[in-house]
Amino acid sequence: MTDTGGVADPAGPPEDSLSGSDLRQAPEHDLPPTSYALLGLLSFGPELTGYELKQWADSTLRFYWVAPAMSQVYSELTRLDRLGLLESRDDRTGQRPARRYKISERGMAELRRWLSDTPIDFPVLKHPAALRLLLGHLVDIDVTRKMLGGYIAQLDERRAELQEVRDGLGSDATFRFPAEVAQWGLSYYDDESRTVREIVDRLSNPEPPDPA
Amino acid sequence: MTDTGGVADPAGPPEDSLSGSDLRQAPEHDLPPTSYALLGLLSFGPELTGYELKQWADSTLRFYWVAPAMSQVYSELTRLDRLGLLESRDDRTGQRPARRYKISERGMAELRRWLSDTPIDFPVLKHPAALRLLLGHLVDIDVTRKMLGGYIAQLDERRAELQEVRDGLGSDATFRFPAEVAQWGLSYYDDESRTVREIVDRLSNPEPPDPA
DNA sequence: AGCTGGTGTTCCGACTAGGAACATAAGGGA
DNA sequence: TCCCTTATGTTCCTAGTCGGAACACCAGCT
């Protein structure tokens, strides 16, 4: 087993000193999915700083993928660059010096390979509202009802944000797939909101005899 | 800020030696949600080994909460025990010696406090199928269609498993809340399956002019 | 001059994921 | 009988992830 490398190398100076043998090394195994998520954002073309990439992920990606932390965005960029999947340069044209990254040909190829070859994982979910409903026997019913009411309010808020994202994509074929994903999310929020309202109704009217 | 403690203490022998001052210490801050998830399972009453708790979590909890890894189950049990939220004993009655844990009064109280006082977080989602659909521009359309077909098949499978869980809960009022949560999950799988089928249809018939 | 807020990045500690490793028992087949 | 597989029960290690603190600099406002 060869060393696939730690992300940070605090001992070595970053400039010059082509010391490592792991420069431009192919990622023998799959990277974690979050790496492909960020690489995927960059596959749409822009040349971004870590800060800008984080903002973009926060505004769109987070609806179906956990928005990675700032620190993780930067360490991912460092790693992807080291693997040759990105190209980077120092940008001093703006008011602030910054490092800008864009996807490389290698990166595009690796992304295509991953999309074609890798079996799909089932979604991973952490659903606090469901967990709390499960534990309803421990608290007064009003606590649970109130909790679900708050969840519905959050759903409405998120739905409105996602609607804005979807509207911003227009009907241009360029953003056909992002638009499909946004639509998917909107359907999800609508269905979820309806389902939770039904649950709240059932909690209020304990046993409505089925009139069928 | 006082030390809220590492989970493992490899230096110290576990028996006797009341060395620490952090025994039976209240958790000043909230524990991570996964801790409350496991504590919540134990709030239904049983006295379990780490192994059994992991199996239970795998069979039911995983539908709306990431099933924690074996190693995490054990470290959580150790921590919750150290905090006085669990009671534990060595069990040698079975064929294999094992440590059994059940929830304490303190644990029940802390769980109730958390349910009542803590604001609810929005669900966290990692949705590989959505991420791949987003990147549809990179691959042939058939790759994306096939990917979504595989996802639908996984959905059907999961739905069948959850249906069994739900059937096992019956209509007894004891499991009213677990049954509601299971029903919630079933609705989610049904809605998601329908939505994804619609997406696949749209991918096949690119622009069906709206006949309205 | 100082305050606040946005840009840009790094570092650290805690939490989480996943598998390897270890140990023992039960059951089945050559 | 011996081996193999499966299940029980637990620990350890590595890498990945999260969240905040810290640092730095610039712009606009008071």
Report what the structure shows.
Two copies of one chain form a homodimer. The first copy, chain A, is mainly α and 212 residues long. The first copy, chain A, has two domains: 85 residues, Winged helix-like DNA-binding domain superfamily/Winged helix DNA-binding domain (Arc Repressor Mutant, subunit A); 77 residues. Chain A contains seven helices and three strands, in the order αααββαβααα. Chain A has a two-stranded antiparallel sheet with strand order 1-2. At the A-B interface, α1, α4, β3, α5 and α6 of A face α1, α4, β3, α5 and α6 of B. β3 of chain A pairs antiparallel with β3 of chain B, so a sheet runs across the interface. The first copy, chain A, binds a DNA duplex (30 and 30 nucleotides) through α2 and α3.
What labels would you give this structure?
WH-like_DNA-bd_sf (chains A, B); DNA-binding; 7 helices; WH_DNA-bd_sf (chains A, B); homodimer; Arc Repressor Mutant, subunit A; two-stranded antiparallel ribbon; 212 residues; 3 strands; PadR family transcriptional regulator (chains A, B)
Short structural description:
Chain A is mainly alpha-helical and 212 residues long. The first copy, chain A, is built from 7 helices and 3 strands; from the N terminus they run αααββαβααα.
